[in-house]
TrEMBL record:
Complex and partners: Homodimer.
Species for this entry: Ferruginivarius sediminum
UniProt-recorded name of the protein: Cyanophycin synthetase
Every ATP-grasp domain range: 220-473
Similarity remark: In the C-terminal section; belongs to the MurCDEF family.
Key word ATP-binding present: yes
Summary of the function given for this chain in its UniProt record: Catalyzes the ATP-dependent polymerization of arginine and aspartate to multi-L-arginyl-poly-L-aspartic acid (cyanophycin; a water-insoluble reserve polymer).
Regions annotated as coiled coil: none
Gene Ontology MF term list: ATP binding; cyanophycin synthetase activity (L-arginine-adding); cyanophycin synthetase activity (L-aspartate-adding); metal ion binding
This enzyme's EC code(s): 6.3.2.29, 6.3.2.30
Length: 875
């Protein structure tokens, strides 16, 4: 088998509203060998992955998938379920999948859900190898497969602290972006409502407070001055100073680096000069300044304060084992590490115990060796600090915290100035005031780990991610800005720009992505084709954006899905023949399903804006649309729209030369058509439709009819406001209409405008991407020829064809066009084709420039002089 394509679809897509992995799989010779021809395959599947017995498949009950395997199914279908189950075996709960055949024999489109993208992709690759071995009756080392996948998981998945905050955000329907694959840098929410954090450090974290927490001596000074118990100690810069301090405070003492975390370089309960020498060297290896302080006898406690409130407390114990009277110390350590709760790093509730130099020294101090048999009940300490990251354990004691200790913890947070703070407190107990016992704060932590509270070894787990989200989003909102998504075959860019203009004119700060640019508050930040999911993500990450207006093209939907999980307004303009034959989209119904992904992604309280004049939009768009529906139509007598209005639905239509809004028995004028510049006094009906679509979207977003009217009448078809879309420019007696029509439906619509413009001759420059079907290119050439007297064909993007091949198909189509006297010439380079058109033009002609390089064409047009046509000789 061979994987032809393999990628993550990161939002609603052609196959699912979920994030899924898409795999285009060639199963090769296995096309002729379904599963019922493979001896013992069901038994091997059960043995390798027992969880497959729960897969329902299309049968709809547990065991349904294995029933399908027994009856006979294709290898691609088995890959789907194995990829799902491999992820479940990693701890990710996934279940959705589907496998559909393609138009090519033996090639299948396999789709399955994922939680972590890297793991989902890796599971797909491993699944192909596993299934190929199954069908070829080879041995499979499933433990090795899972081991490789765990390595991927551990390298990419979010840690428990970050994950808890993300999960709490998802519970409130707050979207998130992972801003770096290599770190836990996360954005919650969109645009101006966003909040960012890394691990447990947020945008609100005080930089000075962070610095104080990182300096143990500074921390003790601030807390001690405020009357909070801290151990006596001082910073030392030599071993002699350390010895002097130890004698001053009297043994036992604690030795630790001035700056550090996770207990690295810390030695506790140092009882003599020799041990202090060794502890000093260990601490100095971490930082040049070493702290020597009193040793406080008591249990190690962690108090977690978020947004000024104590939310959790845990008692921690350093890594240790308890003797059973039979096992050696090494055997006891091995038994502890065999606990399934222990893993590497932060992958599990507990961490594997690694015996380092400090561990061996501590074991020796207790009078043991690794070969010693430890008496029953005897505790052997393996680490001197109680960090979970070194194998320690934690017990939740939140409910035991005395009110006075509670107040002290919250006061410490205020004194240090941190929004999230972990307080390390040595005390006999938290159930009585600190001044009634041996107690002291030994350090505070900025960006404290949450694992001990989320999954304590003993006691109740605490959802400490939720208070972080409540702090970042105190209004209880979901952190979302309104998203308007626009799709269709033609008119997407015009409608996107017009909706953006309506919102900006009404005072909103808009982030817009379309074919041509990404603009933030009317400032261009990127140029190019930005009608895909990456552009959407760029807009939604911008901190000033109040509204996102996003053009959504077919290619982006098929390649990566939408760049968002849901939108407030989805606009579906039309569904016409274009790009058929690409990515297994061969029919208009399949194209319609692709386009309706946008209205299927509308949130329940949102609005789908649908073109009632397009039969497929009316039928399939209405079927898939979520939320409310607003129709727009050039036919005020549309039966479907009249029924919709009768049922109190909203529709935008035309009546007596006006764009109007109708609902029930109410009709409200929006604007006369002649006052809409892009309508060209009604000669561009396609732009009248685009204006109604934009008006409907604006209404759904809360704009008043007055806002909409002002926006429509101030939006002009100029290169500044609408670059490359129906730009009509006059220079030296020649008019040029610049547009981007690259398919037959677009040109049919444009023809009405072109015909309305008086001209001696109509001369066109046009091209088409090479990824269209032969028949589509020839039909485009024919339509161009019917509209013009002369045609210069260029080729800006061969897209997989030989250079000149697409242009030649356009020329042949133009040549064979019925009732056409157009002269067609191929000039491959766009710049040269435009020059040839200029040379052929005279005063009074109309140039129709369907070009990519708009700016260059406009500059050359304005700098060009055109000849006056010769007078017609008298007969």
């Amino acid at each position: 088998m061979q994987i032809l394509e393999h990628r993550a679809l990161r939002g609603p897509n052609y196959y699912s509203r979920y994030m899924v992995i898409y795999m285009r799989l060639d199963i090769g010779e296995l096309e002729h060998r379904p599963s019922d021809m493979v001896p013992g395959i069901v038994e091997r599947l059960k043995e390798l992955m027992p969880g497959l017995q729960e897969h329902r498949c299309s049968v709809g009950r547990p065991g349904g998938f294995l029933e399908r395997v027994t009856r006979g199914t294709w290898a691609g279908h088995v890959v789907e379920h194995v990829a799902i189950e491999l992820q479940n075996m990693l701890g990710f709960s996934v279940g959705y999948g589907k496998t559909v055949d393609s138009y090519d024999p033996g090639i299948y489109n396999v789709v399955y859900r994922y939680r972590d993208e890297a793991c989902g992709l890796a599971a797909g690759r491993e699944a192909v190898d596993v299934v190929e071995s199954l069908f070829n009756e080879r041995e499979i080392d499933i433990d090795a497969v899972i081991g490789r996948l765990k390595e991927v998981r551990d390298a990419h998945m979010l840690g428990p602290s970050t994950g808890s905050i993300v999960n709490a955000a998802k519970a409130r329907n707050i979207p998130y972006f992972r801003l770096s694959e290599e770190s836990s840098y996360i954005q919650l929410g969109h645009g101006y409502k966003q909040q960012r954090f890394q691990a447990t450090v947020t945008w609100k974290t005080n930089v000075i407070g962070y610095g104080i927490a990182d300096d143990k001596d500074w921390t003790k000074q601030i807390l001690g001055d405020a009357g909070i118990p801290v151990p006596q100690g001082r910073a030392c810069y030599s071993v002699e100073e350390a010895l002097e301090a130890a004698h001053e405070f009297a043994y036992p003492v604690v030795v630790k680096p001035l700056v550090g975390n996770h207990g690295r370089g810390v030695s506790t309960n140092i009882g003599d000069d020799a041990a202090l020498h060794e502890a000093y060297e260990i601490a100095q290896a971490r930082h040049s300044t070493v702290i020597v302080e009193q040793y406080i006898k008591g249990d190690d406690h962690r108090l977690l304060v978020i947004d000024g409130k104590l939310v959790a407390a845990a008692r921690r114990r350093a890594a240790h084992v308890i003797g059973d009277g039979r096992s050696t110390l090494q055997e006891l350590v091995d038994q502890a590490n065999a606990d399934p709760r222990r893993g590497v790093g932060h992958e599990n509730l507990l961490t594997q115990i690694y015996l380092d130099e400090q561990s061996h020294r501590l074991i020796e101090q207790q009078g043991w060796t690794l070969a010693s048999k430890i008496p029953r009940g005897e505790i052997v300490w393996l680490k001197s600090t109680a960090n979970l990251s070194t194998g320690g354990t934690a017990t939740d004691v939140t409910d035991d915290v005395h009110p006075e200790v509670h107040d002290v913890a919250e006061r410490i947070a205020r004194l240090i100035g941190l929004d999230i703070i972990g307080i390390d407190l040595l005390a006999e107990t938290l159930s009585k005031p600190l001044d009634e016992q041996s107690a002291g704060v030994v350090e505070v932590n900025a960006g404290p780990g949450f694992r001990m509270h989320l999954a304590p070894t003993h006691g109740q787990s605490r959802d400490v991610g939720a208070p972080v989200v409540d702090m970042l989003f105190p209004d209880g909102g979901d952190g979302r800005v309104p998203i308007t998504a626009i799709t269709g075959t033609n008119g997407k860019t015009t409608t996107t720009r017009l909706i953006s203009h309506l919102l900006r004119h009404a005072g909103r700060k808009v982030g817009m992505a379309c074919t041509g640019t990404i603009e933030i508050d009317n400032h261009i930040i990127m140029r190019g084709d930005y009608s895909g999911p990456q552009a959407a993500a760029t807009v939604l990450k911008e901190p000033t954006v109040e509204h996102a207006v996003l053009e959504v093209a077919r290619g982006g939907i098929m390649r990566r899905g939408l760049g968002f999980d849901e939108c407030d307004v989805g606009v579906l303009l039309n569904i016409d023949s274009d790009h058929l034959g690409e990515r297994d989209i061969h029919t208009l119904d399949e194209l319609a399903r692709c386009k309706t992904v946008v209205v299927d992604a509308v949130r329940e309280t949102g609005t789908a804006v649908l073109n009632a004049d397009d039969p497929r939009v009316l039928e399939q768009g209405t079927y898939w649309a979520r939320g409310n529906i607003i129709y727009f139509t050039l036919n005020p007598n549309s039966k479907a729209v009249r029924q919709h209005v009768h049922d109190q639905g909203v529709a935008f239509t035309v009546s007596e030369g006006r764009i109007v809004m109708r609902q029930g028995h109410i009709e409200a004028e929006v604007i006369p058509v002649n006052d809409v510049p892009i309508a060209f006094e009604g000669h561009a009906p396609f732009n009248v439709a685009n204006a109604m679509a934009a008006a409907a979207a604006g209404f759904a977003l809360g704009l008043t009819l007055g806002d909409i009217r002002m926006g429509l009448q101030t939006f002009h078809p100029t290169p500044g406001q609408l670059p490359g879309r129906t730009n009509l420019i006059e220079a030296d007696g020649v008019r040029a209409l610049i547009d981007y029509g690259h398919n037959v439906p677009a040109l049919v619509a444009l023809d009405k405008l072109v015909s309305s413009l008086t001209a001696n001759k109509r001369i066109a420059v046009a091209s088409a991407p090479g990824n269209r079907r032969d028949e589509d290119l020839m039909a485009l050439g024919a339509q161009l020829a019917r509209m013009h007297d002369a045609l210069f064909i260029c080729e800006s993007d061969p897209r997989g064809r030989e250079i000149g091949e697409a242009a030649e198909l356009l020329r042949r189509g133009a040549e064979e066009a019925a009732a056409s006297h157009c002269k067609a010439e191929v000039v491959l380079v766009e710049h040269d084709a435009v020059e040839r058109a200029f040379d052929a033009a005279s005063e009074g002609d109309l140039l129709v420039l369907l070009v990519d390089d708009i700016d260059s064409a406009i500059q050359r047009l304005k700098g060009r002089s055109f000849r006056t046509p010769a007078p017609i000789a008298a007969k």
